[in-house]
From TrEMBL:
It is an enzyme of class 3 (hydrolase). This is Putative exopolyphosphatase. CDD domains: ASKHA_NBD_PPX_GppA (cd24006). Gene3D superfamilies: 3.30.420.40, Exopolyphosphatase. Domain 2, Hypothetical protein af1432. Pfam families: Ppx-GppA, Ppx-GppA_III. Its EC number is 3.6.1.11. Residues 338-514 form the Ppx/GppA phosphatase C-terminal domain. Belongs to the GppA/Ppx family. GO terms for molecular function: exopolyphosphatase activity. The lineage of its organism: Bacteria, Bacillati, Cyanobacteriota, Cyanophyceae, Synechococcales.
Amino acid sequence: MIQENELSNLQEKNILVASIDIGTNSTHLLISEVNLDLKSFSIKFTDKSTTRLGEKDEEGNLTEESIQRVLYTLKRFKEYCNSNGVNQIVTAATSAVREAPNGRDFLNRVQKELGIQIELISGSEEARLIYLGVLSGMAFEDESYVIIDIGGGSTELILADKKDAIALTSSRVGAVRLKNDFLNEEPISNERSKFLKTFIRGSLEPSVEKIKRRLHKEKSVAMIATSGTAISLGNLILSDLSQPKQKMHGYKFKKDNLEVILEKLIKMPITEIKKIPSLSERRAEIIIPGALILNTSMDMLDFNELTISERALREGLVVDWMLRQGIIKNEFNIQSNIRKTTIVHQARKFGVDKNRSEKVTNIAFQIYDQTKNIFHSDTDSKAKKLLWAACHLYSCGKYVNINSYHKHSWYLIKHCELLGYSQLETNIIASIARYHRKTLPKKRHESWQSLISKEEKTIVLEMSLILRLAASLDQRPENVISSIKIKLQKNALSMEIIPFNSNQDLLLEKWSLESCRNAIKELKNLELKVV
């Protein structure tokens, strides 16, 4: 697979990037060709398999049967990618894996058996990626848009414009979830239909209220629907109106048209719905709950028309990869800085002192740059980027209590929404903050147990040691340190602290730095010498 530092060698050719979306109902593959000159991508191939990962046991765990279906599909997708010269595979798992107690075990199993690393994304991150995917395929005018994506286990509602996502929401109501929990009768009775609408309304209410609060009254608003449910309903409406078959991307239909289709479907037994040519057997089983969610959301948000987008999460994964590689810079300027924006937002929320965190970051980067092959061997700067985030959030635990604040920082970082970061990366950032002071990791620590792979643990040990040294030098509100000079002399690490003012007494910093001696000795078997 292609690495970030290899992009410079590929300026003369295009890159094939595959994205895999492991959903509640289906597992999807998309292969795109990224044009480095045009800074855009085109879709070359798509495939999907109805893996039904949302079929869980009584305890909410993913069943072995559903896991086997996904493993078989992923193995086939990987083989196709390898056979067709795909340079990079990016993956995401959504609500089914998020909510299952054995979700993490499933991800580890995929990694072990297939060598595929899957990013487990939060509901808000899923919404952000959907927005990026829609934005990549539709020309947004000077108005706001509400985007809805009805999945198997969750429904994402997004308020956005062409510059940024204004509100990102995710509700635990989806077509498969509704079908499994409430739809055992056929056809559906009037009472059951009313109950479902009430249940959906209650589930969507927090998301709808958040979007309504952030709507700009001066801007017009349009609705965009994406996902298999919306596309299937579009095809049914097209057929019901006796309109010629057409591409669904950009197709518009009225709420009245949707209600006509919904009324017909509710009266039909499932055996008859399965005979509809445009519906697969599995889509036929969940089309009614999906249509109820869409119709209820249009009611609650007061939309009489919507436009279908065929681009969503899978395309968003490609766009996000392009942003991370720096291929896209101007077109999605705000989104390309999403990591910085979300870190700054969380730091501000928890009252972190911006000047002091920037001071610590500066010192940490000096230490990082001078300790390559001493403290770390981070060749692609992946760990450095996570260190940057940790430097800005490591003290956020003081918002809870200054005593043992590193433990509170771990909890807050782990459970806050860091858009642009996977859950694995969020765990690493939280753990770097956790171990920047006091004791080193122990097997019994929950924070240490949350790190699965040897690579994750190595990054945490190395970057937390750097942060430990940098934070120990932050002893005053003002910035008194000009630079740090580090030298390795046999088994001794010499650290020279150079003040801005040659007359400045740095005894506080030197005493504090001495507290890092044991950590350096234990982790790197080096003696610390403070100059």
